[in-house]
Automatic annotation (TrEMBL):
Alphabetized UniProt keyword annotations: Cytoplasm, GTP-binding, Ligase, Magnesium, Metal-binding, Nucleotide-binding, Purine biosynthesis
Enzyme Commission number: 6.3.4.4
Record has Ribonucleoprotein as a keyword: no
SUPFAM superfamilies: P-loop containing nucleoside triphosphate hydrolases
Entry protein name: Adenylosuccinate synthetase
Encoding gene per record: purA
Family to which the UniProt record says this protein belongs: Belongs to the adenylosuccinate synthetase family.
């Protein structure tokens, strides 16, 4: 029995939602610990498609407790909208099935506006390409010690003072940008209006998780984004504003690191990225286009086409280490069906020098040229395969080579968007 942390090992959209939904059959509690509604997780269950942004991907399974930890930034309106969308699909999630940490900072409309204003004011080549959900500005306010947190909605007497403090900062910026200032009384009224709708979900999550752990319940921690979008370890400044590495599961939920037994890194069989920033193996040719079309690589949140490229083993080898990944779930192998040959990046050339890691400096990252190894493709289909025996020999060879290059075994293999098209090699919960 073990608690499992799921993280993305690339730039997000590796298929975390599908794998967390699949694994959650064995879990009692599923916890989101960072990010916000910038995430987009697609679950396909018996032909029904669920698109989640803020809610943990265990939420569609009855009988599982979903938890949003303090490491998340919570847009209360986005939460209510997502709950309503799910209810319309027949999944009704009330406070008995969803608990939200009282110390979770809120995303307010002013954060969303600032995110968009900043992006639009930046020259295109320097844009981060954020989801414009207010994620960055909300985390800035958390670290700046002026955020409004969920628990503050339960203390109406002290709320105006907290809002004044927040607006002293924001209205200064808004004056500089030439946009109307936010009126304190109006914002307090808006917060008081939404409070009764979200406060029933509020809980002391650190305590809840500690009790669950002591009772021997299995806890599944669900990361959003990917390790290369981590604020410290990612391709800074083209990153998101939270720690996405596995260690964040501890601080982002209030459980000690000793309770995290197994880290599963979700890894796409090729590479994609949404938004700006360096991407050494990016393919802007017909091959890249084919990967995008076959893999249906369009963002869930913004609808943007994802940039596509060959599998980069250098990056994943690095995130295996920064996240302490014990095993990977290799997804979307089926998208590689039908290629005559496949390339895998095994190193970089930067300024004439060969290296086997991602350099930390953004200019050097942009100059990194991939060194490829070419492998034979396969013509038979792997789509929907549910056992190793169903895989063509070349596909098995590809998987084995990926394991060797990243220094980590495949624990789970995914061969289609559908929940059950998944091959279990090693059960993370039995680590
Ligand atoms: P996440 O953000 O990591 O949860 O990933 P997304 O849901 O944004 O993107 C992954 C996409 O790939 C979704 O549309 C999934 O339904 C789909 N998907 C997941 N696993 C597989 C797979 O093994 N094969 C194929 N073809 N699609 C998959
Ligand atoms: P999931 O959980 C892919 C990217 C954005 C942008 C950068 C910063 O579905 O894997 P932000 O709005 O977070 O300030 O944007 O991070 N990004 C993601 N890319 N998948 C995601 O989530 C992402 N969440 C943010 O495109 O480049
Ligand atoms: Mg996604």
């Amino acid at each position: 029995m073990a608690n499992v942390v799921v993280v993305g090992s690339q730039w997000g959209d590796e298929g975390k939602g599908k794998i967390v939904d699949w694994l959650s059959e064995q879990a009692d509690v599923v916890v989101r610990f960072q990010g916000g509604h910038n995430a987009g997780h697609t679950l396909v269950v018996g032909g029904n498609t669920y698109k989640l942004s803020l809610l943990p991907s265990g939420v569609v399974r009855p009988g599982k407790l979903s938890v949003i930890g303090n490491g998340v930034v919570l847009d209360p309106q986005a939460l209510l909208d997502e709950l309503a969308r799910l209810a319309a699909q027949g999944v009704v999630v009330g406070p008995e099935r969803l608990r939200i940490a009282e110390n979770t900072p809120l995303i307010l409309p002013l954060h969303r506006e600032l995110d968009a204003l900043r992006e639009n004011a930046t020259v295109e080549s320097a844009r981060i390409g954020t989801t414009k959900r207010g994620i960055g500005p909300a985390y800035e306010d958390k670290v700046g010690r002026r955020a409004i947190r969920l628990v503050d909605l339960a203390e109406p007497a002290t709320l105006p003072g907290k809002v004044e403090r927040l607006l002293a900062h924001h209205n200064l910026i808004r004056r500089g940008l030439g946009v109307p200032e936010v009126d304190a009384t109006t914002l307090v009224c808006e917060l008081n209006a939404i409070a009764p709708k979200v406060l029933p979900f509020m809980d002391r999550v650190w305590d809840l998780l500690d009790r669950a752990r002591r009772e021997g319940k299995k806890i599944l921690f669900e990361g959003a984004q990917g390790a290369l979008l981590d604020i410290d370890h990612g391709t800074y400044p083209f990153v998101t504003s939270s720690n996405t590495v596995a260690g964040a599961a501890s601080s982002g939920s209030g459980i000690g690191p000793g309770a995290l037994d197994y880290v599963l890194g979700i890894t796409k069989a090729y590479t994609t990225r949404v938004g700006g920033g360096p991407f050494p193996t990016e393919l802007t040719d017909a091959v890249g286009k084919t990967l995008g079309e076959k893999g249906r690589e369009f963002g869930v949140v913004t609808g943007r086409a994802r940039r596509c490229g060959w599998f980069d083993a250098v990056l994943v080898r690095q995130t295996v280490r920064t996240c302490g990944i014990h095993g990977i779930a290799l997804t979307k192998l089926d998208v590689l069906d039908g290629f005559t040959e496949l390339k895998v990046c095994v190193g970089y050339k930067v300024d004439g020098k060969q290296i086997d890691y991602l350099p930390a400096e953004s200019g050097a990252q942009a100059r990194a040229e991939p060194i490829y190894e070419t492998m034979e493709g396969w013509q038979d289909s792997t789509a929907g395969a549910r056992s190793w025996a169903d895989l063509p020999a070349e596909a098995v060879k590809y998987v084995r080579r990926v394991e060797e290059l990243i220094g980590c075994p495949v624990a789970v293999l995914s061969t289609s968007p559908e929940r059950d098209d998944t091959i279990l090699v090693h059960n993370p919960f039995l680590a």
